[in-house]
Amino acid sequence: MPRLVLLEPVTVMRHVARLYALWWTLLVNQYWKYEGFCRI
Hints:
By secondary structure, the protein is mainly alpha-helical.
């Protein structure tokens, strides 16, 4: 049981970090696209 208790937060944080990284990349990509269109 202690193993599960320790493992759960790690997996949850890993998934959250992955989702946050994906969201951040999409946000940055949209920002650069917007900047490029504005410059053109």
